[in-house]
């Protein structure tokens, strides 16, 4: 089967019991802006970063049996040092050192990794719902 042509990432979604709190975190931390979204049978907030990256925050279904996120897990996933091999979303930040310092000043537990062989710096942390987040000082080359 041949790969489809013209594919691009449309959005990433996060389910939350408090989408307003989560939206505020992404707006304040990364500079997302809230954009208009269609009406659904549940609350949704759509956020946009730059010209083409969207984050959809979706009200958690109260009837679901799945745990809400890593904070409800019994494993060590709650420690950001486990995120380099765990589920996370990554953002390039041009002001990496200042950005990471601001996270720490907000009391966010950050795990930093410096890969000298690739001249790459990474920092891993959790959003308020326990979703894994990474920031890096390297922008992907296309």
From TrEMBL:
Keyword Electron transport: no
InterPro entries for the chain: Glyas_Bleomycin-R_OHBP_Dase, Glyas_Fos-R_dOase_dom, VOC_core
Gene Ontology molecular functions: lactoylglutathione lyase activity
Domain VOC: 8-138
Keywords: Lyase
Primary enzyme class: lyase
EC number: 4.4.1.5
Protein name: Glyoxalase
Family annotation (Pfam families): Glyoxalase
Organism: Handroanthus impetiginosus
């Amino acid at each position: 089967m041949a790969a489809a042509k013209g594919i691009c990432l449309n959005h990433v979604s996060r389910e939350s019991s408090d989408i307003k709190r989560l939206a505020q975190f992404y707006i304040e931390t990364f500079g997302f802006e809230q954009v208009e979204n269609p009406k659904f049978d549940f609350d949704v907030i759509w956020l946009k970063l730059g010209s083409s990256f969207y984050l959809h925050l979706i009200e958690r279904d109260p009837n679901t049996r799945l745990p809400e996120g890593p904070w409800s897990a019994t494993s060590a996933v709650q420690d950001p040092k486990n995120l380099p091999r765990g589920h996370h979303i990554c953002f390039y930040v041009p002001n990496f050192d200042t950005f990471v310092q601001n996270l720490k000043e907000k009391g966010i537990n950050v795990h930093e990794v410096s890969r000298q062989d690739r001249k790459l710096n990474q920092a891993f942390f959790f959003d308020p719902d326990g979703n894994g987040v990474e920031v890096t000082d390297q922008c992907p080359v296309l």
